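From the pipeline queue, job 12 of 40. The input is one protein chain; the requested action is below.

Action: predict structure.
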Amino acid sequence: MTKKSADLSQQIKFLKGIAFFNDFDDHELNQFLSVSKWLKVARGTMIIEENTVEKVFYILVRGEVSVFKDTGGGNTVELTRLATGDCFGEMALLGEIRRTAGVAASSDCFILRVEPEIINRSNVFLQLKFYKRFCEIMVSRLEQANRRMAESRPTEIEAEAPPTSLAPPPPLHDLETEMAPAKKRSPRPQAKGKKTVTPSGNPPLPGKKERISASRIRRRIDPDQPLPVNPVVARKINPFLNGQTTNTRLFTDLIYQDPVLSFKILKITNSSLYRRSCEIITVPHAIIAVGINVVQEVVAKAISDGSGTVPFSAAPGLAKSFWRHSVVVAKIADLLKEVIRINIASDVYLAGLLHDLGMLVLDPIEPAFYPNIRQPSEHLVELSDAEAEHIGVDHGQAGQWFTEKCGISAAYQNVMRFHHNPLAARENIILVALVSLANCFAAAREECVGAPTLRETEPINCPAWRQLKEEHPPFAEVNVADFSQMIEGEIKKAWPEIDPGF
């Protein structure tokens, strides 16, 4: 391999670690690098000057920049700060528009400079991905502006960042360089000073001002982020990893007791590494497709990667309730499938097991939120609404984005996205309805993540019954009240088998 090709390979690898390029493949990144230029920018350098006309835009590959507005008299007001993965100057795509704000490097930065004319002459698929990403970014910024206006805080910018005077910075210089691998963005740092806690001992809930926009959360979701494995399951499965036990059936049963292990196996077996001709939607199918040795390696790595992750800020009992709830919903969903006699291609149990995976995805993004849901509060009436209010999106949306990036079956993505709102589902409707109902039945037995005040709709009032009646003709004439009561009786009888025991 020549030095030039090695440099290109390193640059492509580097870009893959940036949220902006999540959906780009190697070929597209190669095309993009051929029409862009690396810039190394020293701290304090002026990158964009306000009121100038310049038909280029920039992607911040590493570092932080300040976006500011001239207020006259030699003073400037900082509007916002952008970090790794953000873009700026994209209005140049629209034509001869004067720069509406200035941009300066707040730290040493690596930036990609792109000429819009070159992008417009490139492959149409590359153009579409760029414009899609820009649309997401602009919608996010519009959403933030609308929120500020709705909250009637015209001086919010000045309150968050006092006016500062910027000394004339040095000019911007081009530099072609080999890029070092980027570090993953860490969770938002906590404010310095005395730590604030609520009377329960938990950190206070984040408010509207602190929450992150939905588009930014989507970009920050890392498909390779480590997720915690239930330590009880990890201990039980260890003998299967070191060769002490070879019972494949028991090994599969243990994997099916943990959402992270099951998810990791689906992810790797559906990845481009194996290029399957058909989608893998169950763990047994995965074991047959790639072999028991590969699955053992995936399980061992998942346990190892997640061992350093403390779920839900170690809030007492919260992680346990999450793992119990996942298994209980899975088993009740499977029971519903059998009682209603529905034939469905997807693994109903697995759909139930994975339905709340988005909580583990959101937890490191806003670690102050979940420890509070164990305490009754007027701010926490319904979990999904509270997540959207205090974090920016609910765990259903986060789970769907996460598994979409990981190549997991669209059926399981739909379940994650719509299990709290089954009437909004347009695909895999019966699967979504079964998990939504199972979620309600589990919460009715107080097998829920959060305080009892956060319970779901009572099972008899769950809108998923309507979906079943419309999508499954044999169920159309069933009396929901009587059937719901019968299911509660079946769950009670089967509870010794449903209860996961941890």
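Job complete. Residues 152-197 have pLDDT under 50 and may be disordered.
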